[in-house]
Design a protein that fits this description.
- The structure holds 3 protein chains of 3 kinds.
- By secondary structure, chain A is mainly alpha-helical.
- Chain A has one domain: 3 helical TM bundles of succinate and fumarate reductases.
- Chain A has 9 helices and 2 strands, in the order ααααααββααα.
- Chain B is α+β, with helices and mostly antiparallel strands.
- Chain B has 2 domains: 112 residues, Ubiquitin-like (UB roll) (Roll), CATH 3.10.20; 132 residues, Alpha-helical ferredoxin (Fumarate Reductase Iron-sulfur Protein, Chain B, domain 2, Orthogonal Bundle).
- In chain B, 34% of the residues lie in helices and 14% in strands.
- In chain B, 64% of the residues are buried.
- Chain C is of the alpha+beta class.
- Among the domains of chain C are: 135 residues, Flavocytochrome C3, Chain A, domain 1 (Alpha-Beta Complex); 136 residues, Methane Monooxygenase Hydroxylase, Chain G, domain 1 (Up-down Bundle).
- In chain C, a hairpin with an 8-residue loop joins β22 and β23.
- In chain C, α3 packs parallel to α6, α10 runs antiparallel to α11 and α15 packs antiparallel against α16.
- The chains are: A mainly alpha, B alpha+beta, C alpha+beta.
């Protein structure tokens, strides 16, 4: 094996190495979340804006698949490393204390694996809902409502219809809340794990993490809420 | 010499286990008339004297200097390594921190990397093995240059000292839900890496000690900083950030070969 | 090797003999160490790995020696009773380490450090050893800094100093209030480096039970694995005892709970002379006792006396009042009054006795009237609370932990406590005892501090012995030894091993009614009472009568639960207390025989206006006791102290 690969494997095998991978993929996925949200928010500019945006993405062609493959790789790495780390952690402390006392760990930091797995479940559902159109008629060529022109989806209507179902919106909002929790801890953790925070910047970073997480949460839930409450239809 | 201050009656639930592989269980003991001025370990002494008088085997627990510096005492009190007060070891904890009638749960540090020796005493030799993997500056006795020939900026000296204050007690591991030794390793690495004398081996030290840490079966840091909260020497989790940085840089250099 | 020590020269104390009794070369004092090193025997690098060196104890002396010898190429086995070498009790030293660097440009020099140490030791230390200690002191600081010991520094990045008791220069290097830990971590790191290298094998949680002497030479030890209870032998070509002092004979002391006399006492019973056991140091600034359940005493660093002022009320009736309500003119700043030139920085023995005097006079404060104030109000006024917090924050926090009192707001209460023992096994200039092959380092030997140790000198001695002295002198012994003469299973070892097992069985089989701790407590009270800060012939005679009785009761009525083949802390403690019960008798006998007062040994019959009154004519010797098989009749060997450079004078700090 070439030394480069050997040392890369060694890096991967170390605890901090895996955490750095989790941090880097987490940062990339955060970037994706921001872009995704900004795209989604075009819904408030009307059908043309968001449909046009969707078409532009669609027209990227092979590039879109490259982006999707990259995203998938990040997600897989993020999850695989995390699960490996969790397994090590559980093995390192198999027995709990009789009295479970928490001194300063935040709630969101303590449920990372659960918030993460819920988000994963949501992502699968989300893809099934909009991308693969399972259990709905978004891909049915006969449903004119979901097409701007042949081959070009009417994303606007898909979103409106999707979120008009209350339990879909409810699941979405719950998932977004857990995402918010996940990001709340994840954001500052990225800086810690990558060794970037300093004593002086730690507090601002924590604050930025909170703002980021809540901003993303509010931005995301603004769509189902405005649909449910009939502001958008 | 008796102090007129009040005394406490307590109920103790103490973990008893005869060896690393033996099953353990909680036993309940009544601790009566414990002077408020006694230290927690002196309270344990009193309880042990009582157990011996009744023909039982006393509770084994590690302790030595009883002034908070050797790092030998190690128990978990009501789920908290070294008990409820910040910045102290168990031996520095005094009974005035408790109230008469309290029930106290006393357990050993729990971590796979710290097998139980007996009752509340655990084996922390994993810490020694980590330090053997780079927790030193390679200098031969007699080969040192004049002490003042290398000035050390005061902030560096202070940062080094604050990390070096670590007493190696393992409370950080005990408090961490992942039994991670990151705060310990970070402090040990930072002690040397902050000094000009420690720079030549900074990279190999970070790589070596982190790998040794992984091999000993400790968990990973999930940035919750329970370790910092229980550290009797209040060592800052900032040192973990620095270890992440040092490891990151050293590993990157190692991968590309510079 | 010196087989016999000199008799008192007729003209003593002015005479200097032709062959120095410590085996050092007969050259002027400042040249001794250089000459000795230059003429020392050597072992070639290729041959060193054939020698096995046994180091017992992993404190400053033990870790430093083990690491340094391993660096030279010897095979080293190092043993400690703690679960890690890092926890040896050197870790608890707070204040600092002396070195004659003269970085402060305040007139310090090797000579001055040497002189002050001799004077501080009340002219009962060996001149040649102390001169060497002062000389080596500067190298220690270089070594420690290179190892990464984070000493306090000034803003320019250079090393800072402070002053300590008994000196008028600032030569103490420090790392906040935990200099001992930082120095030990340096030595421990060096040890780890050598363990990683494979030439030191470390045995933690392993206690030495006996010394194995074959054909008159120390060739190994018998140990007990404290986790499994296994008793086994370790043969070597030389044995280094670095096992600290015997302060725990007093039960309450600032020593760690596990500190014990077993290693040196066992060596004594195998032939090594025990020197000057009555020189015990009572440290003036400890937190007073609060109750009879108390297990140990906590030291507050002597450095506090740089800024704290000791006082008691002038009138007995003020003692119960809050300190703040006692006006300035009603306070007796007794150290400043009695010793104007040294004031609160009077040496330890003097400051301790002065505190005892005030309390004996009924003017002590706090529970039982056993305490004096150490007041920082003036320093806080002068420097501000922040400055005081920066200097002593951890000590103030420690004080508050234990007493529940805030020393920024009210004065600390302090009282003297047993802290250090100057006596120990007799050694020559090579640090070898009268038993060839048995070397003794650090607090375990008797050599450098005379009758009283100055602050910040224990760390200096431990590291000097470990890093620089024994690595240079050990080859003098080894060169004449064929390496690897004995194996762990040689019959001589098996016999000692069996005796150790028998002793464990015996302790476990008593199955009486009293706990080990109760015996230790009683022993401690007796020794503190009769052989503590002030001793009398009558009191010592009482102790000498009581000790055999107590020992007898121990062996017939002690209860040690559990078995010998498990982790059994009661059993460990029982073995140690059994040895203390024997050792206590030698301690009292030495104090009884020494009919003078000097340093930490204060015989009430021998004083002059409350100060110690030495008798150089009759007692300027090292009392090196030899075990004869009868604890009541040890043989006294005398090494008469010979001073070439310093001259006997009355020690005054006024």
């Amino acid at each position: 094996m070439p030394p480069l690969v050997q040392y890369l494997i060694r890096f991967y095998q170390s605890s901090i190495g895996k955490k750095i991978i989790v941090a880097l993929t987490g940062a990339a996925l955060m970037g994706f979340l921001v872009a995704h949200l900004l795209g989604n928010l075009l819904i408030f500019s009307g059908p043309e804006a968001i449909n046009g945006y969707a078409k532009k993405l669609h027209d990227l062609g092979p590039l879109l698949y490259v982006a999707r493959a990259g995203l998938l790789l990040f997600v897989v790495l993020h999850i695989v490393c995390t699960i490996q780390l969790v397994k090590i952690n559980r093995a390192a402390r198999p027995q709990k204390y009789a009295v479970d006392t928490v001194r300063q760990a935040t709630k969101s930091s303590r449920i990372m694996i659960w918030s993460g797995l819920t988000i994963l479940a949501f992502v699968v559902y989300h893809l099934a809902h909009f991308t693969w159109a399972l259990g709905n008629q978004y891909h049915d060529p006969g449903m004119a409502r979901y097409w701007v022109e042949p081959g070009v989806h009417n994303v606007y209507n898909m979103v409106i219809d999707g979120f008009s179902v209350w339990y879909v919106s409810a699941f979405y909002i719950i998932a977004m809340f857990l995402l918010c929790s996940h990001l709340n801890h994840g954001f500052s953790s990225i800086f810690q794990t990558l060794g970037l925070a300093t004593p002086r910047t730690r507090q601002p970073i924590d604050l930025a993490g909170k703002l980021f997480a809540w901003g993303l949460f509010l931005g995301n839930i603004s769509i189902p809420l405005s649909i449910l409450f009939g502001i958008k239809s | 010499m008796a102090d007129s201050k009040s005394s406490l009656d307590l109920t103790l639930n103490v973990w008893r286990q005869t060896g690393p592989d033996a099953p353990g269980r909680f036993e309940t003991y009544a601790a009566k008339a414990i002077p408020e001025t006694a230290s927690f370990l002196e309270m344990m002494d009193i309880v042990n004297e009582d157990i011996i008088a009744k023909g039982g085997e006393p509770v084994a627990f590690d302790h030595d200097c009883r002034e908070g510096i050797c790092g030998m005492c190690s128990m978990v009190i009501n789920g908290m390594p070294h008990g409820p007060k910040r910045g102290v070891t168990t031996c520095q904890l005094h009974m005035r921190s408790f109230r008469s009638g309290d029930t106290i749960w006393i357990e050993p540090f729990r971590a796979t990397a710290f097998p139980i020796v007996r009752d509340l005493a655990v084996d922390r030799s994993a810490f020694d093995r980590i330090q053997q993997a780079g927790g030193y500056i390679t200098v031969r006795t007699g080969s040192a240059p004049e002490a003042n020939s290398v000035p050390v900026p005061k902030p560096d000296a202070d940062a080094s000292f604050m990390a070096a204050a670590c007493i190696g007690c393992g409370a950080c591991v005990a408090a961490c839900k992942n039994a991670s030794a990151m705060l310990f390793v970070a402090a040990k690495v930072a002690h040397f890496n902050h000094l000009p004398q420690g720079r030549p081996e900074a990279d190999s030290r970070a790589l070596g000690m982190v790998r040794a840490m992984d091999e000993q079966g400790f968990g990973n840091c999930t940035n919750q900083y329970e370790c910092e909260a229980v550290c009797p020497k209040t060592i800052d989790a900032e040192y973990i950030r620095q270890l992440n940085r040092d490891y990151r840089n050293a590993a990157a250099k190692e991968v590309v070969g510079i | 090797m010196i087989s016999e020590l000199h008799d008192a020269p007729a003209t003593h104390p002015n005479r200097v003999s032709d062959t120095p009794p410590d085996g050092s070369p007969k050259v002027p004092l400042p040249e001794k160490w250089t000459k000795h090193k230059a003429s020392a025997k050597l072992i070639s690098p290729a041959n060193r790995r054939k020698y096995n060196i046994i180091v017992v104890g992993s404190g400053l002396a033990g870790s430093a020696a083990a690491a340094s010898l391993s660096e030279q190429g010897y095979n080293v086995k190092c043993f400690c009773y703690q679960d890690s070498a890092r926890r040896a009790h050197s870790i608890a030293a707070q204040g600092g380490i002396n070195a004659a660097k003269n970085y402060q440009n305040d007139g310090d020099s090797t000579y001055r450090l040497f002189y002050e140490t001799i004077k501080g030791g009340d002219f009962r230390a060996r001149e040649s050893n102390v001169r060497r200690l002062a000389e080596v002191s500067v190298q220690i600081i270089d070594q420690c800094v290179a190892q990464g010991v984070p000493f306090a520094r000034e803003y320019g990045g250079l090393l800072a100093n402070r002053s300590f008791g008994g000196t008028q220069v600032a030569r103490t290097f420090y790392a906040a209030g935990q200099t001992g830990q930082q120095l030990l971590l340096g030595a421990y790191a060096a040890l780890n480096k050598e363990i990683a290298h494979g030439s030191v094998k470390m045995y933690p949680r392993t206690e030495m039970l006996d010394l194995v002497v074959v054909d008159g030479h120390a060739k190994g030890i018998v140990v007990r694995d404290m986790v499994t209870g296994k008793i086994s032998s370790h043969a070597g070509d030389a044995v280094l005892l670095c096992t600290g002092g015997y302060g725990n004979v007093f039960y309450l002391s600032t020593n760690a709970m596990g500190c014990n006399v077993t290693a040196t006492w066992r060596a004594h019973k195998r032939g090594a002379w025990f020197a000057n056991p009555c020189y015990t140091q009572i440290h003036p600034t400890c937190i007073p006792v609060s109750g009879d359940y108390q297990s140990k005493l906590t030291l507050m660093s002597e450095s506090l006396r740089n800024d704290g002022r000791c006082w008691v009320p002038k009138r007995k009736e003020d003692c119960g009042k809050p300190a703040a309500s006692i006006p300035e003119e009603d306070r007796d700043y007794y150290l400043e009054r009695k010793y104007p030139s040294f004031g609160n920085l009077a040496p330890r023995d003097i400051a301790s006795r002065a505190a005892k005097e005030q309390c004996d006079d009924g003017r002590g404060v706090g529970p039982g009237g056993l305490g004096v104030y150490l007041d920082f109000a003036d320093a806080i006024k002068r420097l501000g609370e922040d400055q005081i917090r920066e200097r002593y924050g951890n000590l103030f926090a420690m004080y508050e932990q234990i007493t529940g009192e805030n020393a920024y707001k009210q004065p600390m209460r302090i009282y003297p406590a047993v802290h250090y023992t100057m006596g120990g096994l007799w050694v020559d200039y090579n640090l070898m005892s009268n038993v060839p092959g048995l070397h003794v380092l650090g607090e375990a030997n008797f050599s450098d501090h005379g009758a009283n140790r100055l602050g910040a000198s224990a760390l200096m001695q431990g590291l000097a012995d470990g890093y620089f002295i024994v690595p240079a002198t050990l080859p003098n012994y080894l060169a004449d030894q064929k390496p690897g003469q004995y194996q762990d299973d040689s019959p001589e070892f098996k016999a000692v091993e069996e005796a150790a097992r028998e002793r464990v069985r015996k302790i476990l089989s008593v199955n009486g009614k009293r706990s080990v701790a109760s015996f230790h407590r009683e022993l401690g009270l007796l020794i503190w009472d009769k052989c503590g800060m002030a001793r009398t012939k009558e009191g010592l005679a009482q102790a000498l009568k009581r000790l055999p009785e107590l020992r007898e009761e121990f062996w017939s009525n002690v209860r040690v639960p559990g078995s010998g083949d498990t982790f059994n802390q009661q059993l460990e403690q029982a073995g140690r207390v059994a040895d203390f019960l024997e050792f206590g008798e030698l301690l009292c006998r030495d104090a009884y025989e020494r009919e003078e007062s000097c340093g930490g040994h204060f015989r009430s019959e021998h004083q002059m206006e409350g100060e110690a009154k030495r008798d150089d004519e009759r007692f300027s010797y090292v009392a090196a006791w030899e075990y004869t098989g009868d604890l009541a009749k040890p043989k006294l060997n005398k090494e008469w102290l010979e001073y070439e450079e310093v001259h006997f004078s009355t020690r005054s700090y006024k």
